[in-house]
Specification:
alpha+beta, OB fold (Dihydrolipoamide Acetyltransferase, E2P), six-stranded antiparallel barrel, four-stranded antiparallel β-sheet, 4 helices, 30% helix, 29% strand
Length: 304
């Protein structure tokens, strides 16, 4: 390595002198260090006084929530027979009454099976009548000791077997009649048709059952919402609340109908259910709702 020259020593000496003077090589003023000796003092921040929440504010924080509207009841009307849909009288949005016919399946095959079962029943009854006539004759001969005990036992067994055959034929008629009835579907509840995945002329099956319609009871709606577990100290069934539907801009009164018997261990919340009257049809399942419970009554005035 070559020793430093006189020019190099002069340059280093000048740089050290400029650094000591607070200037860089270009003659500009150098910035002070961020920390340590020579650093600028930190600005003083204003002191903000803490705001203490009152007990009333703590209670109100557990008396507001957000929930969703759900249908009070929902039923899927499925096919209970196999065949082609030959009648489908309802559309999505139609209102149906309980017991109203909503669709029909081709019943011709089921009707033929019913006729066949009825014929078999008639034949079984005829066979029983004939055997009973012979049984009465055998009985008279047996009482006159003109027939043996073996003949009497055989005649009695034939009567019993004929009666069993009649019972089987009657069951066959009942099964065939049910198959005919199953081709006509009725709504089990009063409500609104919200889905109809099947069209007229489609083939449906009962195994697995084909879903033809979905009917919802929207005359009353269930409002499901949650509150923190500490709200249980002041909640009771029957407590009043105000339900606001932001999408519709309307508010309705309601009361708590159900307080869940358990607390969700993951969220530490309890589910509550309120029932809203919707006979006017203004509300829709699925809407978001803001819930605000009325102020809690003093513990001494609440019912146990």
């Amino acid at each position: 390595m070559m020793p430093p020259t006189s020019h190099t020593l002069l340059a280093l000496t000048a740089a050290l002198a400029l650094g000591a003077c607070g200037k860089d090589a270009d003659g500009k003023q150098a910035l002070p260090p961020a920390t340590g000796a020579g650093a600028a003092p930190l600005p003083k921040l204003p002191v903000v006084a803490g705001v203490r929440s009152s007990p009333a504010a703590a209670i109100s924080s557990v008396r507001k929530s957000t929930g969703s509207l759900l249908p009070h009841a929902e039923v899927a009307v499925v096919a209970q027979a196999r065949g082609v849909v030959v009648a489908l009288a309802v559309e999505v949005g139609a209102r149906v009454a309980r017991g109203q016919v909503v669709f029909r399946i081709d019943e011709r095959e089921a009707t033929l099976r019913l006729a066949q079962a009825q014929t078999q029943l008639a034949a079984a009854n005829q066979q029983l009548a004939s055997i009973e006539v012979e049984h009465r004759r055998t009985k008279a001969l047996f009482e006159q000791q003109a027939a043996s005990s073996q003949q009497w036992d055989q005649s009695s067994a034939q009567v019993d077997a004929a009666k069993v055959a009649v019972a089987q034929a009657q069951n066959g008629v009942a099964v065939a009649a049910k198959a005919v009835a199953d081709t006509t579907a009725r709504s089990p509840i009063s409500g609104v048709v919200v889905a109809r995945p099947v069209s007229l002329g489609d083939y449906v099956s009962d195994a697995p059952p084909t879903q033809v319609l979905v009917v919802q009871d929207q005359a009353t709606l269930d409002l499901k919402f949650r509150l923190p577990e500490r709200a249980l100290a002041t909640l009771r069934v029957g407590d009043a609340l105000t339900v606001t539907l932001p999408a519709l801009g309307v508010s309705r009164p309601a009361t708590i109908a159900i307080v869940a018997p358990r607390v969700d261990p993951r969220t530490r919340t309890v589910e509550l259910t309120a029932v809203l009257d919707n006979r006017d049809g203004a509300l829709r399942p699925g809407l978001m709702a803001d819930v605000e419970l009325a102020a809690a009554a003093p513990a001494s005035t609440r019912a146990p």
